[in-house]
Every structure is written in structure tokens, then in C-alpha cells.
Write a structure and sequence with these properties.
By secondary structure, this protein is mainly alpha-helical. The chain is elongated, with a radius of gyration of 20 Å.
Length: 242
């Protein structure tokens, strides 16, 4: 496997992450309980969907492997686009992605803990479930927004990703922060962390961004060219021609 093939494989892990995340929705439980549901209703939901919740846990672990691998490829592409300067935004984007998965993984782990033992006190089950939902809010507002925002700034100022991905990401980053902030105060409705329409839109838009960024990096992997309107060459750090 040559260098170009390795780069394309690394870039394609973003696509794999999207596929696994979508699979977690397909094989996961139905509509989750809301904050207005009683502890007994939450406990009953967990008991009725034990196998599905275990499947989500396993798929989240697998998605995390692909996502972190993709973050390495994305960070490298952003660093190349930033050129020979400080290159601060590439590590910021990488850190945002790691932070997002850390919060999301912790949230999934808390909710997975509810299925480990039968007969848990319903209040304990509810507390673990709600804590997981709150961590998902942190994952979006303090993780994915940083990842997408930093990547978008580089895309719009230096390349590394197509400009349309940069504009889409810039809008999405702001939207995600606003929705996550308002979700901190919402116990139901469109901003609800676990079943709100606006939070779901933010998450689905992130999947679109991740898929677009991954496909773009696969297309440029090993080509030696940057991506800014599809034509700008990647900055070089060396001297003149050998």
C-alpha cells in the first residue's frame, strides 16, 4: 500500500464513522423518554430496549475508532493548508473532535450502565439516563462546534476543504452552539437534548458535514494539491526545486 492509498484509507474513515452512527440509529431503540417522563417510565424504556441499547454502545465504540482516525487525517490536511505559519487551528479542530467523542462516549457509558443490572431503582436509572443526555449537549456545544468551526475557518481562509464545506460548517458551528446553549435550559420541546427537533437537526447536519469532509479528503488524498475552489496547490515548507 503506497502513501496515497494510506491517505485515502485514513480519509475514508469519516465515511465509515457516518455509516456506523446511522446503523446505531437503525438498530437502536425507538423514541427515548423525555425529561417530563417519570422515573418508572424511563426504567421501563430501558428494560424493554436492553438489547438495542447494548447494540448502540458497541456501535458507539466502533464509531469512535473511525472518528478519531479520521480526525488525524483531517488535522493533517488542515495543517498543510495553514502552511508554514503557527498552524493553531488544525490542533484546535483535532482537540474539538476528541472532546466531542469523550463527552458522547461518557454519555453513552452512563446510559449503558442502566442495562447492566436488572432491578435498579427507577430514580437511579433516570439519573443516569438524564446525565447521559446532558453530556450529549456538551458533546455538541463544546466539542463538535469547535471541530467544525476551526475546520471551517481554515477552509475559508487557506483551503484544506472545499469552500462550500467551510461555509456550511461555519453556519452549522454557530447553530450548534446556540442550540446546545438553549438546550441547557430546556426540559422539553424543540430544544430538548434527547428528542428535540432542533437538536436532532444539529446532529444530522453534523453527519452531513462529516460525510462531505471525508469525501473531499478522499478525493484530494495523495494528489499533492490543496482544496480551495478545487485548484489551489498545497503550501510547501521547503525551498526551491530539488
Amino acid at each position: 500500500m503506497n502513501h496515497g492509498q494510506r491517505e485515502r484509507l485514513g480519509a475514508a474513515t469519516g465515511i465509515a464513522a457516518v455509516v456506523v452512527i446511522v446503523a446505531s440509529f437503525v438498530f437502536g431503540p425507538g423514541e427515548p423518554p423525555g425529561y417530563g417522563d417519570s422515573a418508572e417510565q424511563v426504567a421501563a424504556f430501558v428494560e424493554d430496549n436492553r438489547s438495542a441499547l447494548q447494540a448502540v454502545t458497541g456501535l458507539t465504540i466502533l464509531a469512535g475508532v473511525f472518528l478519531v482516525w479520521f480526525l488525524g487525517s483531517l488535522s493533517q490536511a488542515l495543517r498543510r493548508a495553514e502552511g508554514s505559519g503557527p498552524g493553531r487551528l488544525a490542533p484546535v479542530a483535532f482537540a474539538g473532535g476528541i472532546l466531542a467523542f469523550a463527552f458522547a462516549g461518557a454519555g453513552t457509558a452512563l446510559q449503558a450502565a442502566t442495562v447492566y443490572h436488572e432491578g435498579l431503582d427507577p430514580l437511579v436509572v433516570q439519573a443516569l439516563w438524564d446525565s447521559g443526555n446532558i453530556l450529549y449537549v456538551f458533546s455538541g456545544g463544546a466539542g463538535f462546534a469547535i471541530l467544525i468551526g476551526a475546520s471551517s475557518v481554515v477552509a475559508l481562509t487557506a483551503g484544506g476543504l472545499p469552500r462550500w464545506v467551510g461555509w456550511f460548517g461555519a453556519v452549522l458551528a454557530v447553530y450548534t452552539v446556540v442550540v446546545a446553549f438553549l438546550a441547557s435550559f430546556a426540559e422539553g420541546g424543540a430544544f430538548s437534548p434527547n428528542n428535540g427537533a432542533l437538536t436532532l437537526i444539529a446532529f444530522l447536519a453534523f453527519l452531513v458535514w462529516l460525510l462531505a469532509a471525508s469525501i473531499a479528503l478522499v478525493g484530494r488524498a495523495g494528489s499533492g494539491t490543496g482544496i480551495e475552489d478545487g485548484s489551489r496547490p498545497a503550501p510547501t515548507t521547503g525551498g526551491g526545486p530539488a
